[in-house]
Amino acid sequence: MPESKAGRNKKYYLLGAIIVFSFIFNFGCQRPEHFLQDPGYRHQVHRQYRERLHLAQGRSQELFSVMKQRLTLEEREALEFLYAFMPLSDLANLDGEYFLEEVRTALKARNFFRWGKKIPEEIFRHFVLPYRVNNENPDPARQVFFNELKERIKGLDMYQAALEVNHWCHEKVTYRPTDERTSSPLFTVKTAFGRCGEESTFTVAALRAVSLPARQVYTPRWAHTDDNHAWVEVWVDGKWYYLGACEPEPELDRGWFSAPATRAMMVHTTVFGKYDGPEEALVKTDLFTKINLLPSYAPTSALTVEIRDPQGNPVAGASVDFCVYNYAEFYPIASKATDEQGRATLSTGLGDLTVQVYKDGLWTWSKVTVGKTETVSLTLTEPAFSQQEFDLDLIPPLGRAIKPLNPEKAEENASRLKHEDGLRQSYEATFINQDIARIFAREKGLPEEEVWKFLETSCGNWMEIMDYLSSLRPEEYRKGLSLLTVVTEKDLRDTPAQILLHHLRETPDRVQEINEELYLNYVLSPRIGRELLSPWRSFIKNRFNEAEKNQFLDHPEKIAAWIKTNIILDDSNYYKVPLWPHRAIQLGRADLYSLKVLFVAIARTLGIPARIDQVTGRVTYFKDGEWHSVFLETDSTLTPAPKKSTLKISYQPSTSLPKPSYYHHFTLARFNGNHYQTLDYENEPALKSFPAEITIDPGHYLLISGNRQPDGSVLCRLKFFEVPVSSSKEIELTFRPRLIEPEPLVQFLTSGTVYDLKRNASVDLSTIIKNQNFILLLIEPDKEPSKHLMDEIQGLREQFSDWRGLLVVAIARDKITADLKPNTYNMLPLSSKLLYDAEGHLLRSLTKAIKKEVVDLPVAIACRAGGRVIFYSEGYRIGTGDLLAKNLLWLK
Predict the structure, then answer these.
(1) What are the start-end ranges of the E strands in 757-831?
(2) What is the per-residue pLDDT across 840-873, written as a single tens digit (0 to 9) for each?
């Protein structure tokens, strides 16, 4: 019987209801998605988060009130992950709204890009979500970079997107050396330059902003040259690739450092959070893991160190430092603790290092050649403090050839880099110019030269510095300008006007017993150590009552007693970013370095001159005509400084090394009870010439000198000695010389057309060189290795001044930049020529001479008259200038 119309309608209504109900059930009532899918890991994170809640209760409202907002399950778990593992500085210096915005933008980017959902959870949470890259001061770069980049790369695959992000980074930032404090990504962009650590921090932040997993990797020190380097790795479709930050190449796994990296002894990165990846863990804690990435770059071998006590028993928990010679010191590229069997193992490069081991005042050391030695057995003993001398030959790993790029790709990339340089230079052209600065100073009644110097140095922050100067009242002019002289250049580039005004107006006037220099540098100055400047004076003023302030003024050591009573010493600040002084008080805990910064801040707020001593790292305050030390790391509030002694260092100048420099040719270390700690005398005037005399603490010392050879090896000398209390000790600084006259290596053709940049004319190289000894540098001015070399050469101007030969600096073909002028290198020796290898004649002559393609710039050659080459260097090598200076002996 046919179904009636009413029956059919009833059936359709019922079917429709079932469909609607099913939709609601499956979608409207779908269980919320977890950010942390693994229940076990989720439980670990939540437990750790609860611990951080308790630990940071001093800033509970500022940090955790965002958790009371309406959050998705995904947002809540992502926030808990960040809170659970962040270093102490971020609990102190940042607020919860910042972290919530980071989480929401990271999740938004993951959903926006088609590759977002295929990133494994573990990779995303450790290498995309974290707001911090290394030891920078975090900022809202993620939001800014995501908005600027999303349309530019959304149609690309992951590989091409990574390359494109790096091109964008190059449009914004180029390499230039800066101080040790790492600027935030946004301020690096604002400045338009940064050192490699800042470039790589900025680039990782940009990659993470568009949901490309990234990490900053780092060789703590090279073995073959005196420097270190940081670059970037990006995760693409299941594999990690490397790239040079702000230095785009046409392919991934390319960079000027590719060849040097094959000689590395260590490459590592720090991973935010509890991480269980496949790499060797160098350090593993509840908050972070430091992993060994060297096997991706260089051949490695496992070195095991076995430690026993004098009775032959295994020693557990001994500290083992694996050290390379660099900057005339033995620097630990990795540190491990021995296990119950007294063993510590490290995978490292195939070169020489020293192993230094200590525990409970016992110490031992040994040189080891990795690859030839698999296991070294050492015995901890009382240090032998008798005067001793050791000579060590230290050989770095051998380099490996890197396949050259396709020439067409390289040429296309070079053309694009020039365009990007132009974009960055257009931005830099918006910085204030000298004419406007002078008009402003004149109208304000301020000294024109001084104002221009500050505004020029401030780069993209010039409007903030101008606002600061504009806000000065006539009676503040002298003090206000003085404040700008005692902060760093980087402070001028990233400090808001209001923070500078805060310190100007909250600092007490100078009392009569304090001279002007003490007042400016150690009371008025807001710069204490490596912290970001912050407005701490008014908080500190209001934190203490008048009785406490007067007590601190009469007895500054009681500031230390207050800190020890009220601030918990906490070593969980693993990135070593200093806590702002007022935030350390709020949080109620801080690491040791931040406690030192806090002591100085409290003292300066009250008008007491105070500092962290650069050489020893001690906190000191000035009272009754002398500096007094405070030891925040001991139980005693104030430990009297030991009576000082005098160290006299003599040196017999040689032709190849007339004036040794600290941290380049030699260093001095003092035994601190466990190991020898290098003293920072880099800026000590007394050690700029010899004989030298310095005032030091009595104790046991180690003088290290090194003579770096052209192949990167070092002829090293160690002198152990003691300086008794209240005595005068003499020691001679000596070097192991290389006295063998070099044989000519190859013949260089000293002809070919070049362009003289000063004369604006083409000339033949032979008419410039004539029949002279000469040094030729072939460089690419905008790349980091060439910038290092030119800085070195200009710094050696005095050593070149008596040389009768010719220094030729030539810009390689297609490597000239729009901003390069004849006076760019204005500190070159007088007998110098700046040329442009416009037609590539010099490069072809070099290729013909060495019988292989020149892969890496810069190239440096030292030639006797007629083109007989006695020294050749290609690519990145800090200290090339010094090696050239040593060869002047053979170019007379």
Answers:
(1) 761-764, 774-779, 806-811
(2) 999 999 999 988 888 789 999 999 999 999 999 9
